[in-house]
Design a protein that fits this description.
The structure is a homodimer of 324-residue chains. By secondary structure, chain A is an alpha/beta fold. Chain A is built from 14 helices and ten strands. The longest helix of chain A is centred in the middle third of the chain and has 16 residues. The first copy, chain A, starts with 12 loop residues before the first helix and ends in a 15-residue tail after the last strand.
Amino acid sequence: MQKVTKLDRVPTIEDIQLTHETILPYIHRTPVFTNQSINELTQAKLYFKCENFQKIGAFKMRGATAAALALSKEEVERGLATHSSGNHAQAVASIAKNLNTKAYIVMPSNAPVIKKQATAGYGAEITLCEPTQEARETTLAAILARTGATFIHPYDNYNVIAGQASAAKELIEDSPILDAILSPIGGGGLMSGTALATRYFSPTTKIYGTEPEAVNDAFRSFQSGKIEVNSSTNTIADGLKTNTCEKTFGIIQSHLQAIFTVSEEEIVSAMRLIWERMKIIIEPSCAVPFAAVLKHKELFINKKVGIILTGGNVDLTQLPFTKF
Amino acid sequence: MQKVTKLDRVPTIEDIQLTHETILPYIHRTPVFTNQSINELTQAKLYFKCENFQKIGAFKMRGATAAALALSKEEVERGLATHSSGNHAQAVASIAKNLNTKAYIVMPSNAPVIKKQATAGYGAEITLCEPTQEARETTLAAILARTGATFIHPYDNYNVIAGQASAAKELIEDSPILDAILSPIGGGGLMSGTALATRYFSPTTKIYGTEPEAVNDAFRSFQSGKIEVNSSTNTIADGLKTNTCEKTFGIIQSHLQAIFTVSEEEIVSAMRLIWERMKIIIEPSCAVPFAAVLKHKELFINKKVGIILTGGNVDLTQLPFTKF
C-alpha cells in the first residue's frame, strides 16, 4: 500500500483520498443515520454521520491514525505521545496498541476516572500532571526528551486534519448531494477537515461551523479575521473548549459560510432529542450542530443537511437531562 | 399484494413469510450490530438486532401492524383498540394513523406522561382508567361496544406472534448461522415469534428465553408445564411484567432449550455495558438476554449468538445508573 507522507501544507484532494485509503483498515466506516421524526420536526432532511460508533467512540480515531501512519518505522518504534484529557488520548493509545508500539499520554490530574481507565485499557503509559496547559506541555516535553516518542497534536497537524476529513468524505459518499454540512469547532481539526472534504468532494455544499456561546473563540475569530481565544471553558460541550490554531483557522476562514453559536440549554435540548428520537448516545459536543439547525430552522427547510456526530463518550452517572 | 389472513393456529413458515412481506412497507428493517469490545468481554460473537431503532422505538410495531393488516377493510374503518401503558399502545396508534383510521387506547391513569404524550402524538383517542387489569378490560369493552373497533391484543393473537417473528427472521437473514438466539419473555409474543422463526429458518440454532428473577412466571411455567403467574411486578424491566398465555406458552414450551433468569442488578449492569460500549439506547427489558449471556458465559464461548434488543423507550430523567 502506498504510504501517506507527513504533510507540511493544507491537504490536497489527493492527500485526503490517500489518507482515507490508508486509515480504513484501522477505523470503522460508520453508518449515516436518518430519522423521520427529526426530519418532520426540522422540516429538513438530516443525514447524521455516526462517529459515536467509531472505534474509541469518537472521530478522533481518524486523525490520530492518519498522523501515526505517516511516521517512519523508526519513529513508530520509539512510540507516540500526546497530552489530552479526552478522546484524543484514547485514540493515540488505541492506534499505538494496533501498531504494537508504546503510547505516552499526559493527562491532567483532574481528568475523569473513566477516561483514565479507558486510556490505560489500551496499554498506554499515563503521566498525570497539574491541570494547566503549561504543566501539560512541560510534562510532555520531558517525556519526548526521555523516550524519543513523537508528539501527535490533536489538531495542529495537517495529517490529523486529513484524517478527520475522511468523516465528511464518507458522509458525502453515503448521502444524496447535500445542501449544507455542519460540524462543531473545538481546536478546529474536524471543522477544517470537514471543510476541505466538502470543498473537494461536494463543491456546491455550504459549510457551517457551530460552537457553544460560552466558548465562541472561532465565531469571534471568524468575525475579526485573527485567532481569538476563550476566556472561560464553562460549557457542557467538553470537546469544544480549545482554541483554533493557524493551520485550522486558515482553512476555516477560507471555506466556511458562517459560524453559529448556541446556548448551553439549546445544546442539552438538542442532545436530548437525538437520544430520545434516534436512540443513540452522543456527547454534548455533537449536539451543537443539531442545535444550530433547530435554532436556524428557516435556513434549512427542505434542505439536505449533513451533520457530523462526533462521539458518544459520556459519563452515564452525570447526565444533564434533569438540569433544564 | 396477497393479503395476510386472520390466523387461528400456530403460524406456519408460510404465514410468517407472508406476514413479513405484508408488514415490510410499514416497518423499518432494523440493522444488526456487532461490537468488538463486547465480543472480547464475552468471548462470543454477539449479533444484536436493533429493534430500538424500529418505528415507535420498539418491536411492538411489527405485531400490531401484522394484526391490523389482517383485518377486513370494514374492520379497519371502525378503528383499532387496545389497553396498554407502553410500547404496544404507541404501535397500535401508529399503524392506525398509517391506515388512516382511529385508535382507541385505554391507559392506566398512572402511565408515564411521556407515554401518554407519545401515544396522543399519533392522533389516538386515549381513555384513562384505574390502574387495575379489571378496569382496563371493562373500559376497553365499553369502547369496543360503542365504536365497533377491533381489539388488538399485545400478544394473545397469532397474527401478532407472526409479526413479532419477523424480527428474528431478519436477524437470521442478516447474520451468519447462529448457534443460539435469545429473547426476553413478557407476555411471550416476541419469544414465541422468535422461537417459530428460528425453528423454521435456522433449525440448528438453540432457542433461549430470558426473564428477570422478579417476574419469572415463564421460567416457573417452563418447569411446571402449566401457566404460572407473577405475584409481584417489581422489576426495572417494565416490558416484562406480564404473564404468558396459552398461545404463547404453548410455543415456548415446544421450542425453548431453557429459560434463564437474571437479577435487577445484572439487568442494569448489562444495560449499562450496551449503552457505554455500543453507544445505543436500550430499555431495561432488552438488557435481560445480554445479562443472561454474561451470567452464563461458559455456555456461549466462541458461539455465534443472536440477541433481540427489543426497544429504546426510556425516561432519560429516571435512569438507573446511579443505583448500583
